[in-house]
UniProtKB/TrEMBL annotation, chain A:
Name of the protein in question: Cytochrome P450
GO molecular function: heme binding; iron ion binding; monooxygenase activity; oxidoreductase activity, acting on paired donors, with incorporation or reduction of molecular oxygen
Signal peptide limits: none
InterPro entries to which the protein is assigned, alphabetical: Cyt_P450, Cyt_P450_B, Cyt_P450_sf
Family to which this protein belongs: Belongs to the cytochrome P450 family.
Pfam families: p450
Superkingdom of source: Bacteria
TrEMBL record, chain B:
Family membership: Belongs to the adrenodoxin/putidaredoxin family.
PROSITE patterns: 2FE2S_FER_2
GO molecular function per UniProt: 2 iron, 2 sulfur cluster binding; electron transfer activity; metal ion binding
Gene Ontology biological process: P450-containing electron transport chain
Cofactor(s) in the UniProt record: [2Fe-2S] cluster
Keywords: 2Fe-2S, Iron, Iron-sulfur, Metal-binding
Official protein name in the record: 2Fe-2S ferredoxin
Species name: Marinoscillum furvescens DSM 4134
Domain spans labelled 2Fe-2S ferredoxin-type: 2-102
InterPro entries, alphabetized: 2Fe-2S_ferredoxin-like_sf (IPR036010), 2Fe-2S_ferredoxin-type (IPR001041), Adrenodoxin-like (IPR001055), Beta-grasp_dom_sf (IPR012675)
């Protein structure tokens, strides 16, 4: 098996039952596995809500370590739509040329570092740095701030021995509180300041609401982007002919990003809380129980995708749900897509060869399922394009 | 060349011409409000949803099963709904009118 391969552990359960089961801190979670079922449940916010107690829709459950509601993520329509409309223009800035030029510079810097090191550990020394630096562009703050986030390491929330670590989460929450204080004292053109001066339905956003948007922005875009960047490097290290093809046919890069994101599915699943007795995959589902929408399984659904376990770089019809689906689709998707496009284009132009010299898989355990989502560490040798 | 007319939710009418590519790409090139094309045209995001004028629907044709599954869960879908990224532009589409759904 290739090191960059990410097997689909959900295949049998998806075909035979349509659902899986897992236990999360004393609470059963029904894992919805098929693409059509996942989409239907994601769309049906009245029965499968996001606006439950803050933290409860996340798997593993964060309700015991977080009180702040993440916005718009943990709000349902119609209020969700008002918040989403407020933040959407900011999160679409990656479509602007000036934004892309900044990301291009940061990607260039990361590639320079990889080439001058010759060999480096990609998770900590490439992906974490690039993710952190790119986040300064999304927040519109000075690049130096990324040094603080890089020091936090790869998992703000997760420790080695516990799925959710309150002490580590507190580092992020205290940091955001301090940044909000600073923005209140001297407002600028950063996301904190913009949110603090924004209104929804004629009401100024409260400090708690601003904090909710910022926690979402930090938490939602950290492990996911780090995994996507690391897996991209691993994939092209083992498929140099694919990188050659994109060098010759750069117009395929947009499709290749969607396909890699489908294949990687950097966020395995996301939960919902059931608001009424209902049925999921033909099984009874009780009020106040939890389900999870398993994006990673839906994205390998053989009823929809031909060759689901292969990366088909020019896949033309690709109805994946790697960025979620319906109202709560990923707010940071435009940033993530833009960053990956620039990364792949730059790799294709500047990298002659990448070789994986050592690796440690990052394997998640969800009840009966073990899923490789990426790497805990990935050592790669980088060589420049010749001539 | 095919002349395609878009009517946005705010009532703005934009007519654009192309001989290749798809409807989503044409709308984006012409800054048609309400057509985002977030996924770049692979039928994953449904941000290029249009209602084809009923009298032109035969020219455009029906959605594929995968596209229909996407439209089924779109609150603004009707019997004339299509995703722009799944409509290839050809001479046959000359003169059609598309109402932007969002």
């Amino acid at each position: 098996m290739k090191k960059s391969e990410l097997p689909d552990p959900f295949s049998d359960a998806r075909k035979t039952k349509g659902c899986g089961q897992m236990h999360d801190q004393g609470d059963d979670v029904t894992m919805v596995l098929g693409l059509k079922d996942v989409r239907k449940c994601a769309h049906n916010w009245k029965t499968f809500q996001s606006g439950a107690k803050p933290g409860r829709i996340v798997v593993p459950n964060e309700e015991y370590i977080r009180e702040t509601r993440q916005i718009p993520f943990e709000v349902d329509p119609p209020a969700h739509g008002d918040y989403r409309a407020l933040v959407e223009p900011w999160f679409k800035r990656p479509l602007e040329v000036a934004y892309q030029e900044k990301l291009q510079q940061l990607v260039g810097q990361s590639i320079d570092e990889a080439l001058s090191a010759g060999e480096l550990e990609v998770v900590s020394d490439f992906a974490l740095k690039l993710q952190s630096r790119a986040l300064t562009v999304l927040l519109n703050i000075p690049l130096e701030e990324s040094e603080t986030w890089i020091k936090w390491g790869t998992h703000v929330f997760r420790s080695e021995d516990s799925p959710v670590d309150g002490d580590k989460a507190k580092i992020l929450y205290d940091y955001i509180d301090a940044q909000i204080d600073q923005a209140l004292a001297s407002p600028g053109e950063d996301l904190y300041s913009v949110l603090l001066s924004s209104e929804v339905n004629g009401q100024k956003l409260t400090r708690e609401e601003v904090k909710g948007v910022m926690i979402l922005t930090f938490a939602g875009g950290r492990d996911t982007v780090i995994n996507a960047v690391t897996n991209t490097i691993a994939y092209f290290a083992e498929h140099p002919q694919s990188l050659d093809r994109l060098r010759q046919e750069p117009e395929l890069i947009t499709r290749s990003v969607e396909e890699l994101i489908r294949y990687f599915s950097p966020l395995t699943h996301m939960g919902r809380v059931v608001t009424e007795d209902t049925q999921v995959c033909e099984h009874a589902q009780k009020v106040d129980s939890r389900i999870s929408l398993v994006w990673a399984s839906a994205n390998r659904d053989e009823r929809i995708f031909e060759k689901p376990n292969e990366v088909v770089l020019d896949r033309k019809v690709n109805p994946h749900v790697a960025f979620g689906f319906s109202h709560h689709n990923c707010l940071g998707a435009t940033h993530a897509r833009t960053l990956l496009k620039i990364l792949i284009k730059t790799l294709s132009e500047r990298i002659g060869k990448m070789e994986i010299t050592d690796h440690q898989d990052n394997i998640e355990e969800w009840g009966e399922f073990k899923r490789k989502v990426g790497f805990d560490s990935l050592k790669v040798k980088f060589e420049e394009t010749k001539g | 060349m095919a002349k395609i007319t878009f009517i946005t939710q705010t009532g703005t009418q934009i007519t654009a011409e192309a001989s290749s590519g798809n409807i989503m790409e044409l709308a984006k090139e012409n800054n048609v409000e309400g057509i985002d094309g977030d996924c770049g045209g692979v039928c994953s995001c449904a941000t290029c949803h249009v209602h084809v004028a009923p009298e032109h629907f035969d020219k455009v044709g029906k959605a594929s099963e995968i596209e229909e599954d996407m439209l089924e869960l779109d609150d603004n879908a009707n019997e004339y709904s299509r995703l722009g990224c799944q409509i290839e532009i050809s001479e046959d589409l000359n003169g059609i009118v598309l109402q932007v759904a969002n």
